[in-house]
Amino acid sequence: MSAEATNPGAHSRRRGRPRIDLRRLGRAALLGPVSRDRLPDAIGHVADAHRAHHPDADLAVLHRAYVLAEASHRGQYRKSGEPYITHPLAVTLILAELGAETTTLTASLLHDTVEDTEVTLDQVRAEFGAEVTYLVDGVTKLEKVDYGAAAEPETFRKMLVATGNDVRVMSIKLADRLHNMRTLGVMRPDKQARIAKVTRDVLIPLAERLGVQALKSELEDLVFAILHPEEYERTRALIAAGTGAADPLAAIADGVRAVLREAGLQAEVLIRPRHFVSVHRVHLKRGELRGSDFGRLLVLVTEDADCYAVLGELHTCFTPVVSEFKDFIAAPKFNLYQSLHTAIVGPAGDVAEVLIRTRRMHKVAEAGVIALGNPYPPGPHTQGAHTQSPGDGPQQTGDEREDPTRPGWLSRLLDWQQHAPDPDTFWSSLREELAGDEEITVFCADDRTLVLPAGASCVDAAYAQYGAAAHSCVGARVNGRLATLSTVLNDGDTVQPLLAQDATSGPSAGWLDHARTPAARIAITGWLAANPEGATVPAATPRPQVNVPADRRAAANAVTDLPGVTVRLAGCCTPVPPDAVTGFSVRGAAVTVHRQQCPAVVRMRAVGRAPVEVRWGEAAECRVTLVAEAFGRPRLLADLTEAIAGADVAIVSATVEPPSEQRVRHTYTLQLPDAAGLPALMRTMRDVAGVYDVSRAQHPAAAG
After folding, report:
1. Are 266 and 5 in contact (CB under 8 A)?
2. How far apart are CA 674 and CA 164, in angstroms?
3. Is 115 a catalytic residue?
4. Long-range contacts of the stretch 477-484 (C-beta < 8 A, 24+)
């Protein structure tokens, strides 16, 4: 593979900074002793990059880490023929340029020592402390001799668990994979493809979620070149042709600078070339590329308020493309990304996409969690951290030491991976989990929040909230309304899963069609495997519909002043005293009485029906229709009718619908001796085992 193909992101690197020849530096490091009072020349570039972000950093520990790494790897060579020390040096330089702090760089220099040399974790701990040891252990691979084909998935499982305690573990792994991908050309084509696929399916999504766009973009280009060489070559040709033509973005950038200067806004306007995969995606979306499609304008300011001031000036002085506006400052992405996105039309008709952000936002957009520095700053709560074992993660004494960079997707992943029964299930579930790139937040009835992937259903919410207890879920309330388990949730929904009281209840294979999260899929699959005969719930057998003819006598306690008319209560809302009511004349010289909030009242008024004044008479007796929502079980109908009869209420009619997803609905029209007893009757019915709601009927009625 050509040098260009193994490094397709080279066209977008910063100009003015020469590329470091790590091969030369690595070989020079092997020649002769190094003076103890200065850093080895081989890591001088690392020191320069580190000091650019951390001027006061103590470089002594980097000196010691390099000396140990160089000595332990001495005599080892990469497949390319380079001294092996060039690899940890390159990985450390990548992290240093992104702004990683000293502990991360120290661990990066040592990240292969325990795996590939005689150095032990105890030696690392004695020399560099518990935090460095934890990071080195987190990125150390498991031996194929011990794990066989499961070594790779189990290594990623171990690494992700370590990342849950300290996100810097994954930062080192991403930089390690980037350098390996840069030098993948010496591998056999089949091995290149295998590594590229794992990078595409696992490492690139992780880089996206951790916000490390600088690493993600280059990894995408490297994978693109290996897995899609023909498309890559066409894209390379498009970029080469576009680079040779006049750049319309330069003229638009000059216009933007002039507008902002005249407005008194201090801003830096840059042209950011798109990387290969980005150009490829734009080409697929738009077909023929325009000159302005090969890059975007980046406007950097100091304060958040300046971002909106710049936006206002651009939308005032240029024609904006309204559909392209997005505000990721007010609503940041789940991976910490913040920026204003817009597009403007230049004087010649070219459309330029514009990103507006502060310099701090830009640093986070490029380096993600790496830009946040050490998420565990030293302090009283971290005393004793160097005495722990490497598997324990950062010490937590006194106040809980929480990683502010641990997002919801990582918490979900760490939860479900514990229940993955085997490496293959974990590996396939991990790829599925990382395939989605959006999240939603839903609210529980107890005010807790759940962060779920976009497209999640009530099934996912049930397992996220209740774990294995969700096997008995029969439905849910979404925003207060009953919903099936297949209902897809939206951001901001309130969800309340409904669990059956029968312990023998369980999921069906159809639930897998609606489960979006690995946690739900693993739990459902495990239950189905353990219960091949399925749930033994008698209520799952459809029951015949039961009907008792309704008594259609007039309601004597509702009266009107109209002579010679029959007054009857509407079946759609079954009003009872002291409900606020209104009436409407219908065919047959009758007046139907509705509750004022009944939807039928709105429809009657809409078609021009004039309301008739009605009121409650002195008779206490009334008729009402109640709907009981319950979990299907034997003797439910008998228990409900017994409870109703015990309240001295007559059943005029009853309907039992066939069960649906283990839920059943009973509808009763009842004659009460006194309307005042209705609340007590509804409470009595709710107390029947399996009944989770009793409400007044509210179904559509004909206009008459």
Report:
1. no
2. 62
3. yes
4. 477/445, 482/629, 482/693, 483/458, 484/458, 484/660, 484/661
**Would you report the helix, strand and coil content of the chain in percent, each value rounded to 5?**
50, 15, 35
Annotation marks residue 491 as catalytic: no
10 Å CB burial of residue 484 (0-12, 13-18, 19+) is middle
pTM of the model: 0.65
Going by the DSSP 8-state scheme, the letter that residue 199 receives in this structure is I
End-to-end CA distance of the chain: 79
| Cα 310 from Cα 296, distance rounded (Å) | 16
Residues in Cβ contact with 295 at an 8 Å cutoff, skipping those fewer than 6 apart: 247, 249, 271, 272, 273, 274
Neighbours of 412 (CB within 10 A): 21
Tokens 């897809």 belong to which residue? 488
Residue-wise pLDDT tens digits, 376-432: 554 433 333 333 333 444 443 333 334 444 566 677 777 777 777 777 777 777 777
Q: In what order do the strands lie in the sheet with 622-631?
A: 650-656, 663-672, 622-631, 691-696
Query: Do strands 590-595 and 566-569 pair parallel, antiparallel, or not at all (unpaired)?
Result: parallel
Residue 251 pLDDT more than 80?
A: yes
Catalytic-labelled residue, pool 41, 58, 70, 115:
115
Give the model confidence (pLDDT) of 54-108 as tens digits: 999 889 999 999 999 999 998 999 888 889 999 999 999 999 999 999 999 999 9
Supply φ then ψ for residue 560, to 5 degrees: -140, 160
Extract the tokens encoding 643.
């409870």
Catalytic residue among 4, 70, 82, 116: 116
Which phi and psi (to 5°) does residue 402 adopt?
Answer: -100, 140
